[in-house]
Design brief:
Blueprint lengths: L10 E4 L7 H16 L6 E6 L3 H16 L3 E7 L2 H10 L4 E5 L8 E7 L8 H14 L14 E3 L3 H10 L12 E5 L8 H8 L3 E5 L18 H10 L3 E5 L6 E4 L5 E2 L1 H14 L7 E5 L4 H9 L3 E5 L3 H11 L3 E3 L5 E3 L8 H15 L3 H4 L8 E7 L10 H14 L3 E7 L5 E8 L2 H16 L3
Parallel strand pairs: 2-3, 2-4, 3-6, 7-8, 7-9, 12-13, 12-14
Antiparallel strand pairs: 1-5, 4-5, 9-10, 10-11, 14-15, 16-18, 17-18
Length: about 450
């Protein structure tokens, strides 16, 4: 199947270049509209976005393309990615679109598509859309003048999400007495997230809630939690919550400002749900990047860890295949399918807060579920047209590293699905051996980068 434009999470690139231009977006939307048009029940499309300035340009271009294909467009405004999945389904739309490059800087942007069930499109669907797109780039097959769709600005989309998010925890859950630092990364949740926590009774100390189109994820959010950590310590907060630009990821900070990653969050939620009989098949789905310590901890609790390739979409696919209701990634994508069709940082945070409030314990005591096996991750950027992993000396370095870690750890080497990077990750209880192995492999890759 062709994958010329789509990566592991939709289409992504630098704004106003390549695929992230207005003319390309018109053609892309027309192709996607054609793909859904024959099976469409309502001919509705909903479009959400984060706070990047380029998102407004791409939104208008996509709207034009969908209208040209004969579809009606509802523009949701800045909204978290999971809210777009939710509203696609609740508004009976045939298609949902999120304009966001997630945790990337403002100069990048991307497009994620959701089907009528609120789930991201499959690889097969994306490949078929690419085929239609290639045909469109060489001709025009748009709707007749009488079939042009309409565009409507929807003004209550954030309110719908706020009200739904509050229902994902029990009515008895009140966050009164909790002081929470909330970093919204100057992104899509800058309005909704503080409102939800405040309405549930928390004292909210907000950060990253003044987007200007260019400061999304800049020195803030889940990828840059230092400012939030300082604020947690300065204000003596009970917890810090750091979201990314489109709010589908979460990183927590305990009351000392120490980082709590997705693996620790999943360990807490999975064991809690298992004790309550809510964890389907006593199984958590995570990727190959999750720490060995998580797997050992879950096994001790009688919980199975089912691994997938990297990418929250593959976690979700495995959850749907096996009937599992919890999954996620070390990076902070937490998928709770009883409540959402994709990762939702805020909903995961609400689950943690409900446990914290009822435990009478400090976050540092509650959120340290296991001791991670030492893990080292390095990225090597490579040039266009290069294929470093196909080189014999690189293969030899990888084989040597696997032999060195055999029985005491593991090694994972993969190409990024969104950037021209090779990611080299190793785990071992022997830190010195681990560093030598990862450094040697990265050096070999760099020779061909």
């Amino acid at each position: 199947m062709s994958r010329k434009y789509f990566g592991t999470d939709g289409i992504r690139g630098r704004a106003n270049t390549g695929a992230m231009t207005a003319p390309f977006m018109v053609q892309l939307a027309t192709a996607v509209g054609q793909y859904f048009k024959d099976s469409a029940e309502t001919r509705r499309v909903v479009i959400g976005k984060d706070t990047r300035r380029s998102g407004y340009m791409l939104e208008n271009a996509l709207t034009s393309g969908f209208m040209a294909a004969g579809l009606d467009v509802f523009m949701l405004g800045p909204l978290p990615t999971p809210a777009v999945g939710l509203l696609t389904r609740s508004m009976r739309a045939d298609l949902g679109v999120m304009i966001s490059a997630s945790h990337n800087p403002h100069h990048d942007n991307g497009i994620k598509f959701f089907g009528p069930d609120g789930y991201k499109l499959s690889d097969k669907a994306e490949a078929e859309i690419e085929t239609l797109l290639e045909a469109l780039l060489n001709g025009t097959t748009e709707a007749s003048s009488g079939e042009i769709g309409r565009a409507t600005q929807l003004h209550n989309s954030a309110t719908r999400y706020v009200e739904y998010a509050k229902t994902t925890v029990a009515r008895s859950v009140q966050l009164n007495g909790l002081r929470i630092v909330l970093d919204c990364a100057n992104g899509a949740a800058y309005k909704a997230a503080p409102e939800i926590l405040w309405e549930l009774g928390a004292e909210v100390i907000p950060l990253g809630i003044q987007p200007d189109g260019f400061n999304i994820n800049k020195s803030c959010g889940s990828t840059h939690p230092d400012a939030a950590a300082r604020l947690v310590r300065e204000t003596r907060a009970d917890l810090g919550i750091c979201l990314d630009g489109d709010a589908d990821r979460i990183i927590l900070l305990d009351e000392t400002g120490a980082i709590v990653d997705g693996d620790q969050i999943m360990a807490l939620l999975a064991t809690h749900w298992a004790k309550e009989g809510k964890l389907n098949h006593n199984t958590l789905v995570a990727t190959v990047m999750s720490n060995l310590g998580l797997e050992t901890h879950l096994k001790e609790q009688g919980i199975t860890l089912q691994r997938t390739q990297v990418g929250d979409r593959y976690v979700v696919e495995e959850m749907r295949r096996g009937g599992f209701n919890m999954g996620g990634e070390q990076s902070g994508h937490i998928v709770l399918s009883d409540h959402a069709t994709t990762g939702d940082g805020l909903m995961a945070g609400l689950q943690v807060l409900s446990i914290l409030q009822g435990s009478g314990r400090k976050a540092s005591e509650l959120l340290r579920r296991f001791t991670p096996v030492p893990q080292l991750l390095q990225n090597v950027r490579y040039g266009a047209g290069r294929a470093p992993l196909e080189q014999e000396d690189v293969k030899a370095a990888i084989a040597k590293g696997e032999a060195a870690l055999a029985g005491s750890g593991r090694l994972l080497i993969r190409k990024s699905g969104t950037e021209p990077l090779v990611r080299v990750m190793g785990e071992s209880h022997d830190g010195a051996v681990l560093k030598t192995v990862v450094d040697d492999i990265c050096a070999a890759i760099a020779e061909h980068a």
